[in-house]
Specification:
22 strands, six-stranded mixed β-sheet, alpha/beta, about 500 residues
């Protein structure tokens, strides 16, 4: 490929892609240059994934211009894209677990020795050379099974290099990585950039974009909005481009009266997981549960909801005890739970938007054992409208929705039960800044109506911005409790890393 820095390696201009009446990409535009890391940003449903799939050969554009190294390109499949030097590194790689690392890198194109036999020694040596170039320590001979997501992504990058890829697309690669793994991935990305590769980086995390990228292209509603140099822009400007308006308050906290105790958790313990957890949630109150990954926050929420058992302790709602390890008892009492992993635990991906929203209402919608399709549609339509779920049809599979809209469907499903207390675990993880603001606004409105909310979040600004009171966990114990006025980033982080009770 060309090394002329004045000409983009990839140029996609005015790309259009439709699926029946749905316009997935109305005006996709991006230029990727050698020796540059280029961010692609936008709200969920902005058209980013469709643009990536056009570049990767998964979709063919309906119209527009696609140039690769100055020559027209139009791929029929992924193989053609890879042959031309474009590789995509996804958030969750799909390696063959029963093959070795080296076999995964060279699958379908293994080096051959005499008599047509696979040359395993050369394959291992070639894979080791790739890892040496990337500066990582991965054994080419080990099975892929059991590797971390971070190591799997490195293997995919090594595979791309072995294919002589000059364009790498990293699609939300850091979502499941620890801080140290992110640092390693960024070091590799910078090394590849410095060696002349063009890298597209997709992320909802603004701090990563500003740390890693040279330029940023923003899409909105399937169309190109702007391209800016990172050094010449700001977080506020990017947000404005993404959502088409200024967001003066990302955390629209509404002050509302806090009433009587609704949820009362006393001395909840589970051996090896959490110990002696006691707290309350009041009417109209948002209680933030903060802490580092592995502190036991999600496990406490699951125990309160009755999904997981606990060894001792009690949970009461409105003064009435909830039967331990019995989710139906919790739901009937007025508890609702939005889990962290919406795709695996919150939704049935093959079912329609309508059916997912009404899953918690099956008994109410049934008459003589039969569910009224009319009542089901009316209920689903009402809640989809309330939460502004964007979908082509209520009968569309929920899997076709963007991440932010999937999260709204999960919320709709549980809000339809008219809960007294709502537990939300990482309510805005993996969704864009505009939808985050909508979710925060919704939580504020629920609190104003008297719903008690327990919000688990790893994003400290979210906790500080939304919570009336902040609880902090470290290694399965509560180590801090702060009022909204007392809570600061320093105090919360001190409690999150201290095994002892934090001082207010």
């Amino acid at each position: 490929m060309s090394t002329d820095s004045s000409q983009p390696l990839v140029s996609l201009q005015h790309a259009v892609k439709t699926f029946g009446p749905v316009i997935a990409c109305a005006d996709g535009c991006i230029d990727l240059y050698a020796g540059e890391i280029h961010a692609l940003a936008g709200e969920n449903g902005a058209g980013k994934s469709t643009l990536v799939k056009i570049l990767a050969g998964l979709h063919r554009k309906d119209s527009g211009t696609f140039l690769l190294d100055g020559k027209e390109a139009d791929f029929n499949n992924v193989a053609e894209s890879k042959e031309r030097g474009i590789s995509v590194i996804y958030q969750e790689p799909t390696l063959f677990p029963d093959l070795t690392v080296a076999e995964n890198i060279y699958i379908g194109r293994q080096p051959v020795a005499a008599l047509g036999m696979i040359d395993h020694g050369r394959m291992r040596d070639d894979a080791q050379a790739l890892f040496d170039r990337l500066g990582v320590d991965i054994d080419p001979s080990r099975l892929a099974q059991g590797l971390s997501i971070a190591d799997q992504q490195i293997i995919e990058i090594a595979k791309a290099i072995s294919l002589d890829a000059h364009v790498l697309i990293m699609d939300e690669p850091t979502a499941a990585l620890s801080g140290r793994e992110v640092d390693r991935l960024f070091a590799i990305a910078r090394s590849l950039r410095d060696s002349g590769a063009a890298i597209m980086f997709i992320s909802h995390r603004m701090e990563e974009i500003f740390d890693l990228c040279d330029r940023i292209t923003i899409m909105r509603d399937g169309a190109y909005v702007s391209t800016r140099l990172i050094r010449d822009t700001s977080h506020a400007q990017i947000v404005k481009d993404m959502v088409g308006r200024d967001i003066d308050q990302l955390f629209p906290k509404v002050d509302c009266p806090i009433g009587e105790v609704l949820l009362d958790v006393k001395a909840l313990s589970r051996q090896g997981v959490f110990h002696d957890i006691s707290f309350t949630v009041r009417s109209g109150e948002i209680v933030g549960l903060a802490g580092l990954v592995g502190a036991g926050r999600s496990e406490v929420a699951r125990a309160i909801m009755g999904i997981d058992p606990c060894d001792s302790g009690s949970v009461t709602l409105d003064g009435r005890g909830i039967r331990a390890a019995h989710p139906m008892s919790a739901i009937k009492a007025g508890l609702a739970f939005v889990p962290e992993d919406r795709r695996k635990q919150g939704l049935v991906m093959d079912l329609s938007v309508q059916r997912n929203i009404t899953l918690t209402l099956r008994r109410q919608l049934a008459k003589m054992g039969l569910i009224s399709s009319t009542r089901e549609q009316e209920s689903a339509t009402e809640w989809a409208k309330r939460l502004q779920v964007k979908t082509a049809s209520p009968h569309s599979p929920v899997a076709t929705l963007s991440g932010g809209n999937q999260q709204k469907v999960v919320l709709a499903k549980w809000l339809a039960t008219q809960p007294r207390v709502l537990i939300v675990d990482e309510p805005t993880r993996g969704i864009d800044v505009g939808t985050k603001s909508e979710v925060h606004r919704l939580l504020g409105e629920l609190a104003k109506k008297g719903v008690g909310i327990l919000m688990i979040s790893s994003e400290l600004p979210e906790v500080l911005g939304m919570a009336d009171r902040v609880l902090v966990m470290c290694e399965g114990r509560l180590t801090g409790e702060f009022t909204r006025a007392e809570a600061t980033a320093e105090r919360v982080m001190t409690a999150a890393t201290d095994h002892q009770e934090a001082v207010k």
